[in-house]
Amino acid sequence: MSKVENLPVVLVLCSALFGAFLLVEAGQTSQWPPEVNRTVEQALELANQTYTVRAREYRGGSVEKVSETQLDKTRCEQLRNSEEQEIHRKLATIACDKFNRQRPYEEIARIYLKGVDNPQAVFPQSPPLRDEHANETYRLPWEYFLLSPTPAGTSPKFDFRAADALGRIGNNSSITTLIYCYRITTHKDADTQSAKQRQHLILRALNYFTNEQALRAMLECLSLSEQQEKETGKALWDVKGYVYRLLSDQENYRNGELWRKVITDFPKAGLPPHQRELLERALSALKNSRT
pLDDT per position in the chain (291 positions), as tens? Predict the structure, then answer.
């Protein structure tokens, strides 16, 4: 989120959903795309959260964060049971989880978001993913950080760690988050370079799942990129080619046999012709690699 200049009064809505400020001045909207704002509003209503909003003078680029949150644990459990259905349910689930279980969020932030593998390196990066952080205990914290706007000072490659963690954990509920993150990158105002990087890491994360839900998600992401290309008049990068290389295991993740079974059984009725052709080419390449 870019720096806001010359705002005498700012309303600060402290959302546990994203861990970032929604800055709103009278008559203005936040700098997130409209679909993000609508999703946040739905999630807040669904989670039954009460926020204190305070008007405060904007001084020196910093604003005091104020929030009072009331979350019903029974309602939180109900949300968790339906988190994969819709993104606003997912966000409400994350809000509940972060409110009731802050330690794993703080741990991920300390080790990966702010930490680096080698402080003496020319280009230090977020530390490699540890096995103890690639399990269900940390799934929602990883989703939270992947959904969050990247704060200043974030360790390079942190978003890769977050996406890879979700891929390795392999809970299908995370697919909702991955698709949503991809969808936001296709917004017309998205930064081209960061959008390309984010799309790449999301598709790579989906590749870990090797199941029907992940394949359907990859095709949905491909459709989103095709729509983006139609609107902008140019392709951001070769998304279709990368999806093909993943499905045919040409990226050497050694999951080709799993994808072969998934693609063989995948219901292809109703798919656009070019997507059917993509799956057929990937399947043919996988079969040929066995001979």
Answer: 333 322 222 222 233 333 332 333 333 333 445 666 566 666 655 554 433 333 333 333 333 333 334 456 666 677 677 777 778 778 778 877 887 888 999 999 999 999 998 888 888 999 999 999 999 999 999 998 998 877 788 999 999 999 999 999 999 999 999 999 999 888 877 788 888 999 999 999 999 999 999 999 999 999 999 999 998 888 899 999 999 999 999 999 999 999 999 999 999 999 999 999 999 999 999 999 876
How far is 118 from 122, CA to CA, in rounded Å? 9
| Rounded CA separation 152/49 (Å) | 27
In a domain? residue 201:
no
Instruction: Provide the whole-model pTM.
Output: 0.78
The CB density around residue 18, as the number of other CB atoms within 10 Å, is 21
Query: Which structural domain, as residue segments, surrounds residue 4?
Result: 1-71
How many domains does one find in the chain? 1
* Residue 52 · residue 67 · CB < 8 Å: yes
Residue at 36 is within a domain:
yes
